[in-house]
Design goal:
Chain lengths: 390, 331
């Protein structure tokens, strides 16, 4: 019943919307999952004309629609090897599935967390270190619980899997070498003994050096702002730092010392240094969990991803393009709605508190009349069942 | 266009090919005429040096005649290499050409190195002593299996990696190895070559080809895709990274393979040296170092770009270590 209801609604959406296919759409492979339990994906589909493309979506009204980030000579060839790979966009996939303790957060909070990671990628790495332009990328809300970032600059299209892995390692800070960040400098020489000191990069340096320096300074300010007890507990929570080590570190962290560190002099014990580096990387890299670097999304050059402007079968929300300067204020529960306000009666299985469109809803269990967009959302999320003709 | 002495030193340049196309005699003449006896001898020498000393060697280039013979010897050397019908020999030859070129480039002025980068369509500029290379070019050619070359350990600013002459020359070496081996792979040896160089080709194959039949007889069916991939790369005579070698040796050792069994996998590597490899294998297996190294985890393999992520299978997604994969697939 739920599937029948959703399929009907999706059909309505696909017939009233003039869908514009993605760039170079005839070179892409498409895949669709129909409504129903345990449905398999139909892959290796290609379209030659826009009307063919629209008709397919209208007639099939799939629960999930995907297309390839790659361009192919023969996108409908049954074997990937026979497709004739011509290049692929560089994709970053942010999904709240991978946030720690995601289940304790509400849907809205999860979306907010993921958005921050996405902003970090775009501002700090893509526009910053990699020097891309805003027009080189396209951001999409995935319709579910995350965002996709497509880099479309011609330079990245031909990159192979290993090369993309280098990019992932870069944004995650994987394999970062301490010796490349903190530099030893000889300050004086006495016979055979050279006195060395360890220098931290300047916060305005480009790339990882400056990023680490900024994060360390932030970290020190954070510790200085804590009470002694709190700071001790915080420090001890890191491996390799003992009670004694934490006490010594805090004692040594005088205002004068803090100034010295900010000027770039990092004469600390190895354990403290390790702590600084690890924490700084953790704070300034993308969190691997959310960026899904462990899953071959970015490095897979033949992957299927959600089709722009299609609907997500588990939310009824639309996969929509988000302009970069609008990302900070983007609210999927307002901007990704695909359905209108017509009243529909559904039966809530669970209570639901949510802000959708411009309205706040506080639904109790039981039947209720709600706007269409909320009805589709609640049914798709399996917290309500349709009533009436379905 | 570069001058003739430069073309002779760098015969793989587009300009050099252009010169050969315009000025060189017909193939028939090049292969048979006594005039080009010297070019044919150098061609043979290039390949022999490559296989024997990993460098194609240097010859006097003081007269124009010497320069022309040197330049013409390059296409001849390639024909002989292809004539062996052994891709691993061709690859070793390409590597030796590239290494020789990188040695020469180190003593050239910075502007010349910059000029060479244009040859490979690299997006690069020179600012004082420093080069700035676009990061997408960097990750294409840098040996990133070595931590120093990883993008994360280099200064990346506004899309460009800051590097020095030595770094850029190393990248050019990689770009050149790929260019030459790709070109050679597409060549079909003219039948004439077999007739003219038949004796030399036979000798080269007898002395330098490494037999394939002793390899991987026991079957690698239960091995994870990453290890299979390393084995197939090594046995096809291509170079693999230190990390990949390390992964292969530790893996084979961990599943109980003997030293000779491990060694024979490497016997076709382009830079195979029995004693050196033996030493390295013994070091890794703990025979001489006292430390028995364990195979790296999936996470590590991914970081070093060894995990062939597009070839991952069902079982891969369930395990975090190649050994677990092997144990499970044996059940």
């Amino acid at each position: 019943m739920m599937n029948k209801f959703l399929r009907y609604q999706f059909e309505q959406y696909y017939s009233r919307t003039k869908l514009f296919p993605p760039e170079r759409f005839s070179r892409r492979e498409y895949g669709f999952i129909p409504f129903g339990e345990k449905q398999m994906m139909c892959r290796h589909i290609a379209f030659k004309t826009v009307s063919e493309y629209r008709a397919y979506l209208m007639n099939h009204a799939p629960a999930h629609a995907y297309y390839s980030s790659a361009f192919y000579q023969f996108p409908d060839a049954k074997h990937t090897d026979e497709k004739g790979w011509m290049g692929a966009e560089l994709i970053f996939d942010f999904d709240s599935d991978h946030i720690e303790n995601a289940s304790e957060l509400t849907y809205e909070e999860q979306l907010r967390r993921v958005k921050w990671e996405c902003i970090k990628l775009v501002d700090s790495f893509l526009l910053g270190d990699f020097g891309f332009d805003e027009k080189d990328m396209a951001l999409y809300f995935s319709g579910g619980r995350g965002y996709h970032c497509h880099v479309t600059n011609p330079r990245v299209l031909s990159l192979g899997s290993n090369e993309r892995r280098e990019i992932v390692d870069y944004i995650l800070g994987n394999g970062l070498d301490e010796k490349r960040i903190f530099r030893r400098r000889a300050v004086s020489q006495k016979g055979r003994w050279t006195k060395e000191r360890l220098e931290m990069p300047r916060p305005d340096e480009p790339g990882w050096s400056g990023r680490i320096a900024r994060a360390i300074i932030e970290l020190i300010d954070k510790i200085k702002a804590m009470g002694t007890e709190e700071a001790l507990e915080y420090l001890k929570s890191f491996p390799g730092i003992s009670q004694q080590g934490a006490v010594q570190f805090l004692e040594a962290l005088t205002q004068e010392r803090v100034e010295r560190i900010k000027q770039g002099l990092l004469d600390q014990s190895p354990a403290i240094r390790k702590f600084f580096l690890k924490e700084a990387i953790r704070r300034s890299s993308l969190t691997s969990g959310i960026c899904r670097a462990d899953e071959p999304v970015t490095t897979d050059i033949k992957r299927l991803i959600r089709l722009p402007n299609s609907l997500h079968g588990k939310t009824g929300l639309k996969v929509v393009r988000v302009e970069i300067d609008e990302l900070k204020d983007f609210n999927p529960l307002r901007e990704a709605l695909a359905f209108g306000r017509d009243p529909i009666k559904v039966n809530f299985i669970e209570p639901l508190k949510i802000c959708m469109g411009e309205e706040k809803f506080n639904m109790d269990k039981g039947p209720n009349v709600v706007p269409e967009y909320l009805a589709v959302f609640a049914v798709a999320r399996r917290i309500a069942t349709p009533l009436n003709q379905f | 266009m570069f001058s003739l002495p430069t073309l002779a030193l760098y015969p793989w340049l587009k300009d050099s090919k252009e010169w050969v196309r315009k000025e060189a005699p017909k193939l028939e003449e090049l292969l048979k005429s006594p005039t080009y006896e010297r070019a044919r001898a150098i061609g043979h020498e290039r390949l022999l040096n490559a296989l024997e000393r990993k460098d194609i060697g240097e010859r006097s280039l003081s007269t124009e005649a010497e320069q022309i013979m040197e330049l013409l010897s390059y296409p001849l050397a390639r024909m002989i290499a292809v004539g062996t019908m052994d891709p691993s020999l061709s690859f070793r030859y390409a590597l030796a050409e590239a290494k020789h070129a990188s040695r020469l480039l180190m003593s050239e002025p910075l502007e010349f190195v910059l000029e060479m980068c244009k040859e490979f369509d690299l997006d690069i500029r020179l600012e004082g002593e420093k080069f700035k290379l676009h990061f997408t070019d960097w990750i294409k050619y840098a040996p990133t299996y070595d931590s120093r070359w990883k993008l994360v350990n280099n200064r990346v600013d506004g899309g460009y990696v800051v590097s020095w002459k030595r770094g850029i020359v190393r990248l050019l070496q990689e770009a050149l190895t790929r260019r030459i081996s790709n070109e050679i792979r597409l060549l079909a040896p003219p039948r004439e070559v077999q007739r003219v160089f038949g004796k030399q080709i036979k000798e080269i194959k007898a002395n330098y080809s490494r037999p394939e039949e002793t390899l991987g007889k026991e079957g690698t069916g239960d091995f994870p895709p990453c290890i299979k991939k390393i084995i197939s790369t090594v046995t096809s005579g291509m170079n693999v990274s230190h990390e990949a070698r390390f992964a292969l040796v530790t893996f084979l050792h961990a599943i109980g393979k003997s030293e000779p069994d491990i060694l024979k996998h490497f016997s076709r590597a382009p830079d195979f040296d029995l004693e050196k490899t033996q030493y390295q294998v013994r070091h890794i297996t703990g025979d001489i170092s006292g430390t028995e190294y364990k195979p790296p985890s999936c996470q590590k393999l991914k970081t070093f770009g060894i995990c062939p992520e597009s070839e991952m299978d069902e079982l891969c997604s369930q395990v975090r270590h190649p050994l677990t994969y092997y144990k499970r697939s044996q059940r």
